[in-house]
């Protein structure tokens, strides 16, 4: 079936060049991998990034300042204000999550305590009266 | 004459090929399709629980938590139906949870590993344990997710972690000559504080460029030549489209976490040296006792094998295994042979330790 498909496929006039292309790309790949692994590349890319950040800093700061002033004039919150609000929401979420954890724990403990009660045994099988009359700790302390 | 006919046929087929090529580059494939529900959220993070397909009595009782890197979507673990690690594990009876970190905003620029591990992971794990009614769990961390899971496992050894699986884990940074990122981020050339001060969060494009520039010809040229060559193969096209959709969906990384990655790990190797401090606590790898499987990609150019191997001799786990797979950083889990090699090995290893 696949051989039949292969036969029906139109001949690609670029087929003879494909191997040439692949060999070229393989060779280029090795050259480029060596290049990006060199100290020179690390130095050059670091310098480019540093230069871009240094050059853009004054514009960025000026833009941020003017934007902040414009927002203040319009009585609108700045990015920082919104970010601070979002942080407060996250803190509230964490508090809620802590409460959720405590609730889960309470439910777990109460269901564990309820389990023996749910299967309450018949009167005859309850502890002997003497045992049942054992005073609780509070009353012992009082006595 | 016949040659001219053949050529005409070829040329008349070029236009549809260009259309397909264009479609694949400009549209998104449907990825991350395995049915799931959100069971917990905090800030941008979400914990997903995958809908089981195996009856409860046939399922493994120990749930599995997946933790992926911070700067890419975790959908790589659930690439497409029929070729999804998550689908595979759910199908093999695991109660699978996925911690999706989400997209950090400006308000998250100070998030550090400390926060991800002690605020997010701790809470997500508590929720998972409550929902699955299991005191024990397994955890799989991939790439930076492996750093986070390792830190968690060392800080919380008594939290019920039974099995820890690390995929292509960049943990040891001592072999600087073999780690290209270590050259690029050397303090002689790279001013991390200046970058963070200017940008806040590190843009996804910058991280993506870094990953692609490790193999520039493959990523910027060969990748597209291979697609052009395989345009007549629907399976190859579908696979390429899904992978390209994931690759293009890049995320920024919180500035605080990026600083720790560069300064504490790439430059000073503090985790392996036992000097990493997370919110005042020393991360001592000797406290890690869970069963440990570390999966190494032999042709990994992002995390060379030398970064993942030493962990097994630095922990107290009695049950450890190093599994080497031919392939690259992503290919070992999402490549065409992942379902024949990596996934079955992980599943078999985990099944024996999940009863």
Explain this structure to me?
The complex is a heterodimer of chains A (143) and B (355). Chain A has 143 residues and is mostly helical. Chain A has a domain at 77-120. Chain A is 80% helix and 0% strand. The longest helix of chain A is centred in the last third of the chain and has 40 residues, at 79-118. Mean pLDDT of chain A is 80; it is low at 122-143. Chain B is an alpha/beta fold and 355 residues long. Chain B contains 15 helices and ten strands. In chain B, α4 (113-132) packs across α5 (144-155) and α7 (192-199) runs antiparallel to α11. The longest helix of chain B is centred in the middle third of the chain and has 20 residues, at 113-132. Chain B is globular and about 70 Å long. Chains A and B meet through α2, α3 and α4 of A and α1, β1, α4, α6 and α7 of B.
Assembly category: heterodimer
Shape summary of chain A: flat
User: Approximately how much beta-strand content do the residues of chain A carry?
Assistant: under 5%
The separation of the N and C termini of chain B measures: 70 Å
Shape of chain B: globular
Note poorly predicted spans of chain A.
122-143
Number of helices of chain B: 15
Largest sheet of chain A: none
Question: What is the number of strand segments of chain A?
Answer: 0
Number of separate helices of chain A: 6
Order of helices and strands of chain A: HHHHHH
Overall pLDDT metric of chain A: 80
Strand order of the largest sheet of chain B: 1-2-4-3-5-6-9-10
Strand content of chain B: 5-15%
Question: Would you report the number of β strands of chain B?
Answer: 10
Instruction: Name the largest protein-protein interface in this structure.
Output: A-B, 43 and 40 residues
Query: For the report, how would you describe the main beta sheet of chain B?
Result: 8 strands, mixed
Based on CA atoms alone, the radius of gyration of chain A comes out at: 38 Å
Q: How far apart are the first and last residues' alpha carbons of chain A, in Å?
A: 96 Å
């Amino acid at each position: 079936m696949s051989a039949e498909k292969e036969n029906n496929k139109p001949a690609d006039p670029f087929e003879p060049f494909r191997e040439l292309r692949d060999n070229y790309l393989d060779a280029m790949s090795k050259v480029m991998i060596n290049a990006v692994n060199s100290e020179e590349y690390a130095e050059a890319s670091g310098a480019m990034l540093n230069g871009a950040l240094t050059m853009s800093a004054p514009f960025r700061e000026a833009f941020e300042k003017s934007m902040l002033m414009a927002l203040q004039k319009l009585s609108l919150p700045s990015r920082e204000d919104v970010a601070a609000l979002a942080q407060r929401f996250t803190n509230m979420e964490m508090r809620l999550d802590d409460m959720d954890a405590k609730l889960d724990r309470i439910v777990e403990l109460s269901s564990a305590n309820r389990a023996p009660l749910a299967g309450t045994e018949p009167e005859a099988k309850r502890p002997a009266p003497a045992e049942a009359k054992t005073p609780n700790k509070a009353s012992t302390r009082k006595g | 004459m016949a040659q001219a006919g053949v050529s005409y046929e070829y040329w008349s087929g070029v236009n549809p090929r260009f259309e397909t090529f264009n479609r694949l580059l400009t549209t998104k494939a449907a990825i991350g399709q395995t049915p799931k529900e959100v069971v917990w959220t905090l800030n941008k993070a979400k914990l997903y629980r995958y809908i089981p397909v195996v009856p409860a009595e046939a399922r493994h009782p120990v749930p599995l938590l997946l933790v992926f890197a911070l700067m890419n979507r975790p959908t790589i673990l659930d690439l497409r139906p029929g070729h999804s690690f998550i689908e595979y594990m759910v199908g093999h009876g695991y109660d699978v949870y996925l911690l999706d970190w989400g997209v950090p905003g400006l308000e998250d620029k100070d998030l550090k590993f400390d926060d991800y591990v002690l605020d997010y992971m701790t809470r997500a794990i508590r929720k998972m344990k409550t929902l699955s009614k299991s005191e024990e769990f397994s955890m799989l961390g991939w790439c930076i997710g492996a750093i986070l899971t390792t830190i968690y496992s060392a800080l919380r050894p008594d939290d019920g972690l039974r099995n820890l699986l690390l995929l292509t884990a960049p943990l040891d940074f001592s072999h600087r000559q073999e780690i290209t990122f270590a050259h690029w981020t050397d303090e002689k050339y790279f001013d991390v504080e200046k970058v963070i001060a200017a940008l806040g969060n590190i843009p996804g494009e910058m991280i993506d460029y870094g990953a692609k520039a490790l193999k520039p010809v493959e990523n910027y040229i060969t990748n597209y030549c291979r697609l052009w060559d395989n345009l007549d193969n629907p399976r190859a096209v579908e696979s390429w489209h899904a992978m390209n959709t994931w690759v293009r969906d890049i995320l920024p990384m919180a500035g605080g976490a990026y600083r720790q990655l560069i300064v504490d790990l790439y430059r000073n190797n503090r985790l392996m040296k036992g000097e990493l401090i997370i919110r005042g606590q020393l991360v001592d790898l000797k406290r890690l006792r869970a069963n440990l499987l570390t999966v190494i990609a032999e042709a990994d150019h992002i995390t060379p094998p030398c970064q993942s191997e030493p962990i097994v001799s630095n922990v107290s786990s009695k049950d450890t295994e190093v599994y080497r797979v031919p392939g690259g950083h992503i290919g070992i889990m999402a490549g065409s042979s992942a379902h024949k090699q990596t996934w079955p090995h992980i599943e078999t290893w985990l099944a024996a330790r999940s009863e």
